[in-house]
Fold these 2 entries.
Entry 1:
Amino acid sequence: MVTATTAKESEATLIGRSLCIRSLRHHLLRLSGYDVNVLLEGESGTGKELVARLVHRVSARRDGPFVGVNCAAIHESLLESELFGHEAGAFTGAEQATVGFLRAADGGTILLDEVGDMSESLQSKLLRVLEERAVIPVGGTQPVPIDIRVIAATNRDLARAVEEGTFRRDLYYRLNVIRLDIEPLRRRREDISLLVEYLLRQVATALALPVRSVSPAAMAILMAHDWPGNVRELGNVIQRAYVLGRRPVIEPEDLPTDVFGGATEAGAEAFAPLQVALRDHICLALEVSNGVRSQAARLLGIDRKSLWRMMRRFDL
Ligand SMILES: Nc1ncnc2c1ncn2[C@@H]1O[C@H](COP(=O)(O)OP(=O)(O)OP(=O)(O)O)[C@@H](O)[C@H]1O
Ligand SMILES: [Mg+2]
């Protein structure tokens, strides 16, 4: 629910060779010099918290605290006092004053996970904090100055929530200074084998077991699965194979049935047709390059003319 560590504790690295991961690395590098708020969008388990920690780690705030709060996991009635803190006696049961997560992140970074789940009244209060750089604890009257960087994360389309009127537009603009999108794993299958290799080593270390490998047949299944739970699901599958399997090589039968079972028929479907993948890849390159074609062509390793021809072919 809540995670607080200093930057030094988190030694995680961002694994992957897809354009999405490479562009994230590039953005991390660029972001390191700027103390701006960041909005992270991506499905559950795609690595939003990992990226948030990296944004913190490369920033000038790296020696300050990193506090992660999952807004969807805390009941609405509690979230306000958890975030803003409260004075002693502010409400029944509030014997002692608390500082709250926002002040706990003073001098550092706060990750507000599932920010789209915040009630309208909390959205307004958060907006005031960002505008005034001060927090008023529940039951208090005096604003307490704070210096925080906010990284907001969401697994839904926040822009749509704004259009639908469930998320405040002004708060959206405050949070969305830089937006980073993390693609679902099924749209960057080229990351799967690297992640498998990385997770095999990580899980072995965590369970104090010798490192295992994955047979080509099992790898083909892992590559073809749709991974609705993204990298987290992949990590769980590897962990399960270590715990339940005995052999040094992980085989298809060591994989859970929802991954292995449907693989024979689903394998073909799970792969996007090459033309679709190609179009997606070109779109992403253009997005990362802010529409600058020469830059997109360079990223894709082709010349501008070829890019232009493909854009025409795909009606981009
Ligand atoms: N590119 C990556 N390289 C290495 N590890 C990754 C990568 N992406 C995700 N992970 C790992 O996968 C797990 C899930 O990632 P994380 O908790 O950051 O996802 P999330 O997007 O915050 O999920 P949720 O929406 O459910 O909160 C973590 O253990 C994280 O370290
Ligand atoms: Mg998360």
Note: The pocket of adenosine-5'-triphosphate (ligand 1) is lined by residues 12, 14-16, 21, 42, 44-50, 113, 155, 198, 231-232, 235 (CB under 6 Å).
Entry 2:
Amino acid sequence: MSPEISLRFAVPDDAALLLNIIRQAFQARMPIDPPAEALSDTEMLVSARLSAPGFGVIATVDGRDVGCLLVSLPSPEVAMLHRVSVLPGARRLGVAAAMVRDSAYLLADQGVRQLRLLARSELPLVQQWWAQHGFTPLAEAPLGVIMKIDLPHPIRVPTAKAMHLLGVRLARVLRPGDLLLLSGELGAGKTTFTQGLGQGLGAQGQIISPTFVLSRLYRSSDGPDLVHVDAYRLSNPAEFDDLDLEATAATAVTVVEWGMGFAEQLNSSWLDVQIQMPIDIADQTRTVYLVGVGERWQGFDLEEQLFQEWGNG
Ligand SMILES: Nc1ncnc2c1ncn2[C@@H]1O[C@H](COP(=O)(O)OP(=O)(O)O)[C@@H](O)[C@H]1O
Ligand SMILES: [Mg+2]
């Protein structure tokens, strides 16, 4: 079981706490020359950063504050990550990934289009970590390389009908062999979205939630078949293998609800569909983020494809 990681925003009074985490994290790294800027931070500097445009995040595991990061906003469209820090005793729990992911979604929701950071050239493993999390080199900088990730455009989906329609629209850009990984809590609208996809793909029969059968195949009259999987009840990757999705992966469009973490083995490219529920439960609006991962989606302007379609009615 992975531990529960909770995140909160830092307030200027947290400066001493952040400084402590930053120091421990950066002192544990390999020494580099010139030393990481983080090692000369002071409480005043951290506090100043917390008051500037942007925010700080603190990560807690088992009641202990073990990680933090800072985000600055040099422009309304671009954010910079700084001081991504995890205490040496709390490494490999996914703390940094959780902090970065949630910061990215939060920034995307504010209309920020790109998240950047400076990775020192002396630390190839650190650069590799960022690459594994979707960051790519943007430009050479005096001490290393600026890496960036483009943030998804938030798509507001006010009703169940609109969610269905989003699926119908997205179906038009899909090809045989495509893999979609859907995430979002129970009731977020993953199945509703898939029903729209099914309609858009010309799938025959009514698409129902596969929760109890785990996987269903729908034949299509004119496009690729649709394989719809709900991995919610799967407890391990072996059970996922038993579904034998490889058999249809190349010819069908495969949609996996709750597939993050093991469905990636099916294809080196996939479309990450994240559906976020509103904080206010009286609001029905969902926010959807579409991110293409891998070669299939490289250079593919999903946003333009979709919104062009929206515009055309
Ligand atoms: N904006 C919206 N988008 C998607 N579903 C919505 C929305 N507003 C209300 N709903 C309702 O929420 C429920 C979503 O259920 P479902 O698609 O089965 O979710 P999941 O598969 O993520 O568990 C449906 O009953 C749907 O009618
Ligand atoms: Mg479902």
Note: The longest strand covers residues 64-75.
